[in-house]
Amino acid sequence: MSDAVRVCICTPEAVPFAKTGGLADVAGALPRPLAEAGCDVRVVLPGYRAIERERYGFRPVGGAEVPTAFGAVPVQFLESRLPASQVPVYLVACDRFFDRPGLYGEGGSDYPDNLERFTVFCRGVLALLRHLRWPPHVLHCQDWQTALLPVWLRVEPREDLLANTATLLTVHNLAYQGLFPAEQFPVTGLGWDLFTPRGLEFYGRVNLLKGGLVFADLLSTVSEQYAREIQTPEFGCGLEGVLRERAGDLLGILNGVDYSAWDPAVDRHIAARYTADDLSGKRTCKADLQRTQGLAEDGAAPLIGMITRLVDQKGLDLVAAILDAILAAGAQFVLLGTGEPRYHALFERLHRRFPQHVAVTLGFDDALAHRIEAGADIFLMPSRYEPSGLNQLYSLRYGTVPVVRRTGGLADTIVDATPEALARGDANGFVFEQYSPDACLDAVRRAIAMFRDPRAWRQLQQTGMRQDFSWGRSARRYLDAYRLAARARVGTRG
Ligand code: ADP
Predict the structure, then answer these.
(1) Considering the domain 6-256+472-493 in this protein, what is its CATH number?
(2) Is domain 280-468 in CATH 3.40.50.2000, yes or no?
(3) How far apart are CA 116 and CA 118, in angstroms?
(4) Where are the domains of the chain?
(5) How far apart, in Å, are the Cα atoms of 196 and each of 153, 243, 393?
(6) Whole-model pTM?
(7) Whose CA is nearest to atom 17 of ligand 1?
(8) For ligand 1, is residue 308 a contact (CB within 6 Å)?
(9) CA pair distance 428, 67, nearest whole angstrom
């Protein structure tokens, strides 16, 4: 076996196989630059029904019976490669748990047996590593769905193969913790001695993410600002105490962008291609978006875009509160999103009130997401909190100027267009501080005013388009994290 760093990325979703949010972009994009840097990296995810096995060339490579507290569960392993790479990707398949329409639930409700489902997945990951006889130096776990792995690897006796494997747990969104009723705790296979506030108990319930935060060798989250924020009561979702205790083991590593998928110079989804030096294609993209979305075809109207999960986190109440004023300022609004039914109803209502000025698509549509990035002038992200955020980074590359609230990864990446920042040449968007309709509207109005000054606007667009948020930098930081985690593991072995 070579002496390259061996990393197994365990994840509940990864592009292009299965995606509900930014985590999938990370899990699908990070492995390539890691492999280019000489890392022996492999990815494992559940074999959901949504994954097109034939299209992606998955073939069976064995199986196992995984032991669980609710009996032995047969799982099958399938293998393929991450597209355009040599990175092996494995599915842990089990029809009983993963042959369903949704990843985590249906019709807005979680599957009631999610604890069983992700226990089986995590046991399946360990069985797969044994089956492959491939001991990673680091198991890189993502979010609550994989958070049992660091717990088991710390508290259960280890066989030789995984004796030296360290764990890094990356938190993509602290609000999703994997909470289950106390009586389900035995499903995890852990003893009741771990169901305490120092272990996986959280106000009388099972909290998988907490277990991972307590027992992983190293922790990370997806921006430096969010790493600081989650140690406070405002953003810590009740876990700020655990996170403060582990502050010395918590890194902030910003997500990168996969520019082979998200760059208007090469994007096949959009009506015309363009670059920072020649933005003429962006006008074509805007006209195309207006036409296909049923908006008045007007190049002079500032077109504001949003692509988002429709959940409280994303600041949609602010949008609803200021939409009239935005339209009164002459702007148009285009939204693509899916999520909570009440937001579906809200945006349907707004579309019916302003059919020529508000376009709404309720669903998940990757091609349309690209066309909105290219066709809009302004991209709105008024999030309550935003661990990293990818859409503001895509927007920068598409010359679509972000208007964001100063939180998490938005704070780390968007520089407000103050006179000083404009003079320095590093302004790339508009930032507001307070979570209030007035503050948000003020930022949108500043953006609209600058949009009407073509030279100033061009400069803002070009500054963003020339910035580089590719994965190379983040991948180097993850490599450092893997080395740190491996050293931390050696330190705690016993
Ligand atoms: P989050 O992870 O909180 O959902 P991010 O901005 O980090 O937010 O990532 C969201 C990702 O999901 C982006 O790639 C975005 O384009 C995509 N996305 C979100 N909603 C939709 C949708 N309805 N259709 C297509 N893509 C979407």
Answers:
(1) 3.40.50.2000
(2) yes
(3) 6
(4) 6-256+472-493, 280-468
(5) 18, 17, 41
(6) 0.93
(7) 21
(8) yes
(9) 53
